[in-house]
TrEMBL record:
<feature type="domain" description="Helix-turn-helix">
    <location>
        <begin position="42"/>
        <end position="91"/>
    </location>
</feature>
<dbReference type="Pfam" id="PF12728">
    <property type="entry name" value="HTH_17"/>
</dbReference>
<protein>
    <recommendedName>
        <fullName>Helix-turn-helix domain-containing protein</fullName>
    </recommendedName>
</protein>
<dbReference type="InterPro" id="IPR041657">
    <property type="entry name" value="HTH_17"/>
</dbReference>
<dbReference type="InterPro" id="IPR009061">
    <property type="entry name" value="DNA-bd_dom_put_sf"/>
</dbReference>
Length: 103
């Protein structure tokens, strides 16, 4: 036997909002992302070296020469994701589309 449940529009929207929050939390969990701090994500040197396909030593060289911003917290190196994105965008080299671009 099927039952019909009546819900007010307001109650329905509250339920929909709660479901959307849960889906967002599940997406973060499934994607392996760590919780953000003030809407910023931080990567360890192991995570960043794996992501960029470079060695941890190369990351250390970039830290030492001051080209890559980082945080040092109780001996652990952390990189803010937005800083890495900015660094990559600043070092982007556009492909040559036409020979006239070379002249």
């Amino acid at each position: 036997m099927k039952k019909i449940i009546e819900v007010s529009d307001e109650g329905l929207w509250e339920l929909v909002n709660e479901i959307e929050k849960l889906v967002g939390m599940l997406d973060n969990t499934l994607s392996g992302r760590k919780p953000s701090i003030k809407d910023e994500y931080y990567l360890t040197d192991v995570e960043l070296s794996s992501l960029l396909k470079i060695s941890r030593r190369t990351l250390q060289e970039h830290r030492t020469d001051g080209t890559l911003p980082y945080y040092l917290v109780v001996g652990k190196v952390l990189y803010r994701e937005s800083d890495i994105q900015k660094y990559l965008e600043e070092n982007y080299i556009n492909a040559v589309k036409d020979i006239t671009d070379l002249i």
